[in-house]
Amino acid sequence: MFNVISKASKCPMFPMYCVSVFQKGHWKSVCVTGAGGYLGSWVVKHLLSNNYTVHGTVRQPGDAKYAHLNQLERAPHNLQLFKANVLDYGSLCSAIAGCTGVFHVASPVPSTIEEVIEPAVKGTLNVLKACVESNVKRVVVVSSGSAVSLNPRWPVEGYDTLENKLRKIVDVRDVAQALLLVYEKPAAEGRYICTAHTIKARDLVDKLRSMFPQYNYPKSFTEVGEEDMISSEKLQRLGWSYRPLEETLVDSIESYKKAGILD
Ligand SMILES: NC(=O)c1ccc[n+]([C@@H]2O[C@H](COP(=O)([O-])OP(=O)(O)OC[C@H]3O[C@@H](n4cnc5c(N)ncnc54)[C@H](OP(=O)(O)O)[C@@H]3O)[C@@H](O)[C@H]2O)c1
Questions:
Q1: Does domain 14-148+171-195+231-242 match CATH 3.40.50.720?
Q2: In Å, what is the CA distance from 8 to each residue of 38, 223, 234, 235?
Q3: What are the pLDDT digits (tens) for 27-40?
Q4: Confidence tier at 149 by pLDDT (50, 70, 90)
Q5: What's this model's pTM, rounded to 2 decimal places?
Q6: How far is the centre of ligand 1, averaged over its atoms, from the C-alpha of 62 (Å)?
Q7: What is the 44 CA–ligand 1 centroid distance (Å)?
Q8: Alpha carbon separation from 147 to 22, 181, 219 (Å, rounded)
Q9: What is the end-to-end Cα distance of the chain in Å, rounded?
C-alpha cells in the first residue's frame, strides 16, 4: 500500500502517510531524507535523543548549512550523512541500505507548482522503491497541507492588510514527536493530519500584539468566505498531544531574535 502525494506550498499543517510493510522487533536504524532542512533537522534531533541510529540525506555534504547536525547530542556516533537526491535512485539506495525505517521529509521549497511535482511524485516513488529494495519495514512520508486542501493557491498578501483566514499552527517539535509516534506505534496506518491550533488571523495578531507589543502588525483585515476545517483527531487517538499555542509563539519569537530576524 503506497501513497503518493503532490504538494504545492508550505503551510504549517503536516499530513503524513504511514506505509507499513510489516512490523517486527526494534526499528532503531532509520533514514531521514532532507535531514538538513527545517523539519528534517528536528526529526533527526528527536530520533537521536531517542537512541536511534540515523542515516541523514543531504545534497551537498560538507556545506556549512549542515553544521548544526553534527552538533546534535549523540550525532558523532549515531548520525551518518549521505549525499542523495530524491531524483537519483542509486543515491537513495546507498542511504537507505541497512535501515529498518525511513522518514521521507525531503521536498523542494518551490517558487512555482511545477518545481515541486517531479521531486514530490518521482522522488517519493524512488524513495519507496529503494525501501522495497532494502526490505525497509516502515515508511513515514511527510507532505504538505496543500495535498489535502481544496484550493492550494499561493497566499498573496501584503503586510498592512491581511486576509482574516483560519491559520493552522503546529509546533515543529510536536511534529517531530508525531512522526516518531506513527513510526513506533504498530497500530498506525494510512494518512494523518498533524495540526494543533486553528485560529483566525485577526485573533492571532491580537494575541501576538498583547504578548509582544513592541512589533509592527497588520493594520486591517479583509474577511473571507467559509473555510474547510481539518483536524488531527486520528493522530490524537494514537496518543499524540501538542503544546499550548502561547509556548510556541514565545519560543518562535525567541528563536527569530536569536537568528537576528527580529530585534
Ligand atoms: N515548514 C513548514 O511550515 C511545513 C508545513 C507543512 C508541511 N511541511 C512539509 O515538511 C517537509 C519539509 O519541509 P521543510 O519546511 O523542512 O523544508 P526545508 O527546510 O526547505 O527542507 C527541505 C529539505 O528537502 C531537501 N530537498 C529538496 N529537494 C530535494 C531533492 N531533489 N533531493 C533531496 N533532497 C531535497 C533539502 O535538502 P538540501 O539540504 O540538500 O537542500 C532540504 O533539506 C515538506 O514536505 C513540506 O511540505 C513543512
A1: yes
A2: 17, 24, 24, 23
A3: 699 999 999 999 99
A4: low
A5: 0.88
A6: 18
A7: 13
A8: 26, 21, 31
A9: 49
